[in-house]
Amino acid sequence: MGHGHTADDPKRSFDYHAMAEDTVELLRQQHVDTAFFLGWSDGGNIALDIAVNHPTLVKKLATTGANIHPLSDPKSITWATHVKAECGPTDKPFADCWPPKAREAYLRIAPDPSHFPAFLERVKEMWLTQPNMTKEQLATIKAPTLIIAGDHDEIAIDETVEIFKSIPGAALWIVPNSTHSVPRDRAALFNDTVGAFFREAAP
User: What are the structural domains, with CATH classification, of the chain?
Assistant: First the structure.
């Protein structure tokens, strides 16, 4: 909701679990019973939620730049750290300091380009209060899992390691010379590594 060609619905709050359930319903309507899940950033959070709440749907799972604590939580990354370099004061409208390429991509395809500032404020509220996933929830994930982050990721490495250690049998890959945008920073290496993980036989 609110991403890409899909319109935002201001009557609904942004919520990771709701987005996960939207994804599950889409797969159900497409008659998809099992799938490989690869999620970056918020997509990784959504993939973790699906693996916890719909374990039979997830054949294998890979996430990069996922977090389990809100961005306002020191265990993850403080909001000031996340935006201050680009935004200045944290009370400045978030849309004013959003990366130009991301802004242009939104405006190019969104059903209502003028909704961009309101959309970002709604997303910011979610980031500051969610996710709140526990180690106990992560421990229920049964699918073979690869947890990824850049060595200069905005998400704290300690949090990435916490996710990795909480999922039984998970693998961890900290990608050198990479930011939060690992799939773009190291595209060929990322595609080869994740592709090999998905292709290999499950233990």
Answer: 16-78+131-197 (3.40.50.1820)
